Amino acid sequence: MTAPAEVPRFAVVGRVNKGKSSIVATLAEDESVRVDPRPGTTTEIREYPVTVDGRTLFVLVDTPGFEDAPRALAWLRQADVSAAERPARVAELVRAHEGTSELVEERRLLAPILAGASILYVVDGTRPFRRNYEAEMEILRWTGSPGMALVNRIGGEDHVAEWHRALDQFFKIVRDFDAQAATFTERLQLLEVFRELRPEWRGPLDEARTALVAQRRRRRAEAAAEIASMLADELTHTEEITVRDEEGLAAERDRLEQSFHDALRAREEKARRRVEALYGHDGSTFAEGSLERPVFQQDLFAEQTWKLLGLSPGEIVAAGTLAGAALGGTLDAMVGGASVMAGTVVGGAVGGGTALLGLGRRFASVRHVGVSGVAAWVKRAARSLDGEREGDKTFRIGPHAQANFPYVLLDRALLHYDVVARRTHARRGKLEVGESARPGVVAELARGERRELDALFGKLRRSTDPSRSTLDALERAIARLLLGLDPLPGDARAEAGSAAE
Amino acid sequence: MTLPDLIDLEAQLARDRELDLAALEARDRALLRGAELPARTGPLLARWLAALRRAEPGRLYPGRTLAAVLSGLRTGLVLVGLGLGWSAAEAVLRYTGAHPVNVWDFLLVFVGVQLLLFALLVASFALPISALGVPLFGLGRGIVAAVYPRLAARGLSAGGARAAEWATLWHGLRSRRSLYHHLEPWILLGLTQGFGVAFNVGALLGCMRAIAFSDLAFAWSTTLVQLDAARFHALVQALAAPFGWAWPDAVPSRALVEATRYSRLEGAYVLSGTGRAADAAFVGGWWPFLVASLATYGLLPRTVTLLASTGVAARRLATLPLDDAAVRRVVKRLTEPHVETRSPTPEAPGPLASPAPLPAATVAPRGRCAAVLWRDVPGGPALTAAVERQTGCAVAALQSAGGRDFEEAGMAWGTVVDGSDPVVIVAEGWEAPDKAALRLLRELRRAAGAGRHLVVLLVRAAEGSFGAPAAEEVRTWEEGLAALEDPYLAVEPLAEARA
Questions:
Q1: pLDDT tens for residues B115-126?
Q2: Burial bucket for residue A289 (CB in 10 Å: 0-12, 13-18, 19+)
Q3: Is B438 on the interface with A (CB under 8 A)?
Q4: SS percent in chain B: helix, strand, coil, step 5
Q5: What are the residues whose beta carbons fall under 8 Å from the beta carbon of B33, sequence distance 6 or more?
């Protein structure tokens, strides 16, 4: 039995092309891990230390795959050794072949195990079990290091049951782990299993688990901040032009509208990239076009997007009616009910009607902005210094006023977040269309959540410079939505703690 | 939290907004590593900012600069106020002996105007005047709104990146999103009231100088017939009410009022006949009232407002709502452990691009072939039939290799492949062409000789039947075996059996 190393180490071993690097990439959240169908992709040992404040709590070791295990096992068996002498015999195999081109991969992968690492033996559960794998398992057993087996799933077939029957005879612990689709919770569960390999390693592994959960929670909070900031920017964005006359406007209108909507698209794009970066998906392999569901691939202002995301037409009209009725009700209250609820009725009708009229509009439109007051007088004076003539007219586009606009934005942001938070770092290339099965998050919101968002969106739209408290309330509301998409252990406790603060 | 810390906090939050979270966590946690962290948010943030200033001295930390500017502005305003107050007192109390000093002028300048300005100040806080569109109060804001972008644009063109950073910071500070936004009105109020206090102190000093070191004669006059001495006395008595109880001499007597009514037409006090009132002490008797009025209606309100604004600003600074999400995220970064999971070393270079597979020579079956079953491909009649169908020749020899027990060790491959062409190596497509596979092929080549055809037949075995492997698997094998550069080595997928 080899002496355990001071820092827990886990050597990820297995046959070439069976997903070792995928598992390492997922557990270490490292997109730089080379994942390739060609054999011999991993040629050297590479370590992935999990450090907390600079202290290494445990290390994952990616190794080259077994390429000639039966031959290595045959060499080991050439000497008649007792079970107690087997680890030494494995060490002898490594020494005996040093400096040769024989059993290069086997020597490299055995080195960290002989140095005290525990074994994570990876097999592909979508391929059938074959007897020759027993050679690898036998060699690993000879090392005497504690180990567990992970049944990875790379393809579509299912041979997990027969693998379990074989692996159970060689390993104390056997777990299924889909490196391509593992959730954060499943990764944490795997860490908990690691604890069982060596009791003396439980302390650092528990500490790492706590730190990883806290880090994930911080990422979620940052994502909420980014989405809230994006919504605030989008809902307060305006652009202006000053033209000599209406004819001048006709020439500039298209350019202004294009510029305005492009700015909204760019802001959404920026938020997405930042959310992806938060979760470490900032590599060039993250293909934008494939990230999204069919509706998601559409432009922000595409008709299909607006049909499928955000609120339904009925919900928009209902929200408008409620808002109008609330305003009218306030007037009724001010006159002590003397209006016989006319304010409520008329307000509701006007609000609902306005919402109904705006249903088909996906784009903001240009309008003339009048000038009044001293501030405008000063502005005119300043402009005259710039050579503008009296009679010049200023036209503004934005903020985007359509009732569904913030909900479409929010829906797209939440769906994007859902995909990003679920994407493991073993994934390469394009995500399959339809991967996120959610039809849209906004449609599932509770009435209270919708009311809160309605109020916040209203506040945002009323001012180009929203207050800190409004933005803070929006961020908290988004954070609650993200909590539903990416739940973490201890969320209830954390929420209670933040409420107490 | 101090004002410089608050401004630096806003600047840092704005700067960090664009940075990557992982980098922020690493930076912040390293900054305060090993230090005992304060439990309260304010001191914690102050310590963080101090550490940042030390760690990144080249960054823009505008807090101290802006605080110094404010301090300088405050000092400048105080000096200007003192000077203006002194000058105003000198001007109002100017007495050459030709005509006495008019009490009205003093009251208008030092009481009337100041009370009006103070009333407007109070009204601007008490009423939403700007919302009502009263032009006067929008003027300052309008001028700032118009002038600021022009100044900023000029500054930007002159100052480059640092100026742009200042402009962004200034914009952020003035935004309602900033914590400083809630503090600024009280800071500006303090500045203006500091000026007001200094003005009144300067005026008082000027008055005292004129009173102590020159002889002054006071008078009052009016064109209005109704404003007789009795009414004027009632007016000044009302004005003296707040301080009369404490300083009785500061309440002008009826006799003083009557005696000091002055006519410029006559060039004399009205009741004094043709000459001036001779009693200089009597006609100078207004000064206690005037000084007390200045102190009560000018200095006192400004002082109270200055103290109130300073107090409110200090209290707001001390009780900043440091519980919003942005600040909480910073606190989390500072107090929770920083985790790194990625490898610190770069990935070793990958395998070189495989040479393009050589076109294999066409197999001309000689009637018999040998088959080697690689890595436990399930053998049996079905596989043999599949091989024979694919190659068009009978399988004369069948041998396993690559299995658990390394059965090919010491194998006499020459015997196995003797007389067979091609030699077929049957492998499952999903198995990688690893080093053991390459070694087997080399050994077979040695045994079979240079011109014999070797065919790697890739199959997909499933429940006793055999089918074609995936195209990607075939490509992987072709690329993997291309390293052997063997023109008589071919990779073939098993053709599906015709129904």
A1: 999 888 887 776
A2: exposed
A3: no
A4: 60, 10, 30
A5: A53, A54
Which residue matches tokens 């080093």?
Answer: B435
Stated length of chain B: 499
- What distance in Å separates residue A297's CA from the closest CA in chain B? 26
**Angular region, B438: left φ>0, alpha ψ -120 to 50, beta rest:** alpha
DSSP A132-180: THHHHHHHHHHHT--EEEEEE--SS---HHHHHHHHTTT-SEEEE--TT
The long-range contacts involving B310-319, CB below 8 angstroms and separated by at least 24 positions, are: B310/B186, B310/B190, B312/B186, B313/B183, B313/B186, B313/B187, B313/B190, B316/B182, B316/B183, B316/B186, B317/B1, B317/B2, B317/B3, B317/B6, B317/B183, B318/B1, B318/B42
Residue A95 CB-half CA count within 13 A = 7
A64: nearest Cα among B347, B408, B342, B476: B347
Contact A105 B341 (CB under 8 A): no
- Measure B395 CA to nearest chain A CA, in Å: 24
Contacts of B338 in chain A (CB under 8 A): 52-53, 215
Q: Beta partners for B461?
A: B466
Non-local (6+) Cβ contacts of B491 within 8 A are B357, B360, B455, B456, B458, B474, B477, B478, B481
Q: How far apart are CA B251 and CA B249, in angstroms?
A: 5
What is the per-residue pLDDT across B291-344, written as a single tens digit (0 to 9) for each? Answer: 999 999 999 999 999 999 999 999 988 888 888 888 888 998 898 888 888 888
Residue whose C-alpha is closest to residue A8's, from A253, A286, A203? A203
Instruction: Inspect the interface and report whether the beta carbons of B351 and A498 lie closer than 8 Å.
Output: no
One-letter amino acid for residue A40 of the chain: G
Output the DSSP codes for A400-414.
Answer: ---TTHHHHHHHHHH
Residue A137 touches partner B, C-beta closer than 8 Å: no
Which two three-digit tokens encode residue B433?
Answer: 């062409």
Which pLDDT tens digit goes with each residue over B254-268? Answer: 888 888 888 877 777
Per DSSP, the three-state class of A9 is strand
Size of chain A, expressed as the number of residues it contains: 501
What does the pLDDT look like over A30-48, one tens digit per residue? 888 877 766 666 778 899 9
Look up residue A303 and give its amino acid.
E
What's the token pair of residue A228?
């809230």
Residues of A in contact with B331 (CB under 8 A): none
- Pinpoint the alpha helices (H) of A58-132: 69-77, 86-96, 104-114
Picking from B198, B1, B183, B208, the residue whose alpha carbon sits closest to that of residue B82 is B198
What is the helix (H) or strand (E) element at residue B393, kind and residue range? none
Within 8 A of A30 by CB-CB distance, chain B residues are 341-343
Handedness of CA A60, A64, A65, A68 (dihedral sign): negative
From chain B, the residues in CB contact with A218 under 8 A are 21, 25, 329, 332-333, 336
Q: φ and ψ at B41, to 5 degrees?
A: -65, -45
Interface of A with B in 408-427 (CB under 8 A): none
Cβ–Cβ of B176/A467 closer than 8 Å? Answer: yes
* E strands, B402-447, in order: 423-428
Q: Which two tokens stand for residue B189?
A: 């109020």
Strand B465-467 relative to strand A239-243, pairing: unpaired
Q: Which of A51, A54, A130 sits opposite B376 (nearest CB)?
A: A130
Q: To 10 degrees, what angle do helices B180-213 and B3-16 make?
A: 150
Contacts of B29 in chain A (CB under 8 A): 53
Chain B nearest CA to A345, separation (Å)? 29
Strands A46-52 and A55-62, how do they pair? antiparallel
The single residue listed with the structure tokens 């009025």 is B293
The whole model's pTM is what?
0.79
Kindly report the backbone phi and psi dihedral angles of residue A67, in degrees, each rounded to the nearest multiple of 5, phi listed first: -125, -15
